[in-house]
Amino acid sequence: MKDKAFHINGETSENYKKIFIPINKNELTKSEKRGLRQINDAFSNDDLIIETYDHKLIVFLNKLDVNSLKDLIFQFVSEQVSEDNVLLALLTKIENIKSYTYQGGKKVFVNFNDERKVKDRKAKETQRGKFFYAQDADFKVTNNAVPKEYENQIICADSEQLLSKMPENCIDLVFTSPPYNFGLEYDNHQDAMNWSIYFDKLYRILDECIRVTKYGGRIIVNVQPLFSDYIPIHHFISNFFIKKKLIWKAEILWEKNNYNCKYTAWGSWKSPSNPYMKYTWEFLEVFCKGTMKKQGKKENIDISAEEFKEWVYGKWSIAPEKNMKNYKHPSMFPEELARRVMKLFSYQGDIILDPFVGSGTTPVVAHQNNRRFLGIDISREYCELARKRIDQQDC
Ligand SMILES: C[S@@+](CC[C@H](N)C(=O)[O-])C[C@H]1O[C@@H](n2cnc3c(N)ncnc32)[C@H](O)[C@@H]1O
């Protein structure tokens, strides 16, 4: 089939992953044969080699620009293509391979993590134990409905007090960014407290968040450390949740790409004595209550395959919110950040709580994406703004 010399004889080079596609018919169609010839011609032997042998395709796969393969295959596949089309089967099989790395725009399928291979990984995992710090948690497993008076509401209150009135285990997802105590100008919040006063208050609110979160629910906190004062707020918050026996599920790096930020200090200029590090990102710390698995109906999943594939990589490149001046709020996160969080970690119909709702970004995005919401803020002005933004969605 291919004039570039390559012989199977039961063995293949270690430089290839070998995959098989059964041919479930007597003969390949003309367009399948042409398609396979074109693939072999278009890609070098270093990338892949396809042979037909004993009613199957044998694919020797090394590295590949999968999008180019897709484009090529779709030149040979019409809309009424039959289910046993081998070109489509080949594409699906390659797209479903989960183990690869990227190099020079190609997926590399073999020999990419030889140095890091751990033998008997499963057995070692069982021996060590997973999330040991949360194994003896005793959260109640029975979940409750959120009372109607809290559903789809923006409430002006101190979150600690309001949340204390709510039943336990009634919120699917908490998504929030607390004030970071950087000294920003808020309407009704003093943002430069003594650190122990700040953390005491924050922990009391987060404690209430844990209480109202359902068994199997998630708490996701967007937080930026105060690098200039060497205060790792994201570590403090994560430690707090770990002590409370939540499971640390993930850390997402929100890359804001704001290289032109105004802070121009270098520390010890051109000297190792005390250089000042600069950062263009914030963190999202993702915690689960009781179990990693979140219950939900299949028909309420709204994330696409493409979104899922892109967003499970823990670095999200999203520009900062540009409308803060218009909205007169000093520290909003962008809608795209909330959209990804909700689609990746919650189902349609879930109820999403933001106890520091500010300008209302979380409820606006929840509303857009068929989730219910509860937003709380200490400022009347911000609550008004949040309600207005939500109402504008309905116009
Ligand atoms: C970082 S901002 C949240 C911004 C929001 N993510 C957005 O996109 O607009 C924090 C908010 O917490 C509010 N806040 C501070 N202390 C609070 C408390 N004890 N209870 C409720 N809200 C509070 C502030 O008024 C501020 O709007």
Could you characterize the architecture of this molecule?
This protein has 2 domains: about 15-115, no CATH class; about 135-395, Vaccinia Virus protein VP39 (Rossmann fold, 3-Layer(aba) Sandwich), CATH 3.40.50.150. The longest helix is centred in the middle third of the chain and has 18 residues, at about 195-210. The chain has about 400 residues and is an alpha/beta fold. The model is unreliable at about 1-5 (pLDDT under 50). It contains 12 helices and 14 strands. The protein has an 8-stranded mixed beta sheet, with helices on both faces.
Q: Over all CA atoms, what is the radius of gyration? A: 26 Å
Low-pLDDT regions = 1-6
| Strand percentage | 15-25%
Instruction: Write out the distinct hetero groups bound to the structure.
Output: S-adenosylmethionine
Helical proportion?
Answer: 25-40%
The count of DSSP E runs of length 2 or more, i.e. the number of strands, is 14
Element-level helix/strand string: EHEEEHHEEHEHEHEHEEHEHHEHEH
Could you say which overall geometry the principal axes of the C-alpha atoms support? Answer: elongated
Tally of structural domains: 2
Strand order of the largest sheet: 7-14-13-8-9-11-10-12
What distance lies between the first and last C-alpha atoms, to the nearest angstrom?
62 Å
Q: State the assembly state of the protein chains.
A: single chain
- Please identify the structural class as seen in this structure: alpha/beta
Q: Give the CATH topology of the largest domain.
A: Rossmann fold
Query: So, CATH architecture of the largest domain?
Result: 3-Layer(aba) Sandwich
> pLDDT average, as an integer?
91
CATH top level of the largest domain is Alpha Beta
Count of helical stretches? 12
